[in-house]
Amino acid sequence: MGLARLARPANLPTAAADIIAGVSIGYYFFEKELSSASLADIQQIAFLVFSSVFLYAGGVALNDVFDAKLDAVERPERAIPSGVVSVKMASLYGVVLLIIGWVVACIVSSLTGYIAMALAAAIILYDAAAKKHGFFGPLCMGICRGLNLFLGTAILGSTSLWWIACIPILYIFAITLISRGEVHGDNKNHIVLAGLLYAIVIGSLAFIMIKETDQMHIASPFLLLFAFLIFKPLIKAYQENSPAHIKAAVKAGVLSLVVMNACWAVGFGSIYIGLAVLVLLPCALLLTKLFAVT
Question: Does residue 161 sit in helix, strand or coil?
């Protein structure tokens, strides 16, 4: 159970959703029908999903390794400071998960292997150093999520859709800003900036779908749900700027990644793929009953 806690199981569906969304985007731009994917195509998608999940799990495990001393003071309930898992075991666990994630991505193609390698490097950079900086921490975390989406878009062997990664980079930058108040509160300025970034993300999603597809009318309910889920707790955290409300806003932001990815999947895939992605949200919510999100 201790190792499972380190991997943040409630967050893992968001990593899988990134890949499905990225694959939907990649297939759309290269005029392939995801709904008619062959068995070999489905196998490649599954490999990338597993790669993403392993990379994410390894990243959050190593995050707790690097934060062990701080967590002993601020989050003593976590697996390492509570004594459930040793630092040595958690370190080995995190590294092995990252290696597995990279190897599985290499099975798909050399390109996805390189992207997975870059993602693993960005994860380690964030865990070990970047998160200590007010600007580079959120940026590095956003790059990790952007690379994860990019991993999905690259399934057909092209890097031309790199610009799509800018959307999750902005979004995760916002969430990371909010999370700076999880322990002590008092982060209204960060919440205002995060709200602005949220609005830019939603506007960008809508603009891209209107410009590139004819699916905006179908994607609109998903986009509205996304906006509701992220702004409601954010406004609450601004009004009552306490660690509890800030943590709730962070949790909502992380889990709502599934809904954002469902928007991508509807806009560039189909309503059925979008709904399949959306099903991951209740799965994640059920896992929050057993495991922490942050």
Answer: coil
pLDDT tens-digit map of 64-82? 999 888 888 878 888 888 8
Residue type, 7: A
pTM above 0.85, yes or no: yes
Pair of tokens at residue 122: 């960005």
Say which CATH topology domain 2-287 has.
Farnesyl Diphosphate Synthase (1.10.600)
Handedness of CA 51, 57, 60, 64 (dihedral sign): negative
User: 62-83 burial, b if ≥16 CB within 10 A, otherwise e?
Assistant: bbbbbbbeebeeebeebbbbee
Question: Residue 7 and residue 97: Cα distance in Å, rounded?
Answer: 9
Alpha carbon of 208 to those of 25, 50, 161, 199: distances in Å?
A: 11, 28, 12, 14
Backbone dihedral angles phi then psi of residue 185, each to the nearest 5 degrees: 75, -155
Q: How far apart are CA 251 and CA 114, in angstroms?
A: 30
- Which DSSP category does 290 fall into? T
Q: Return the residue matching tokens 């193609």.
A: 109
> Which residues of the chain fall short of a pLDDT of 70?
181-186, 294
Look up residue 183 and give its amino acid.
Answer: V
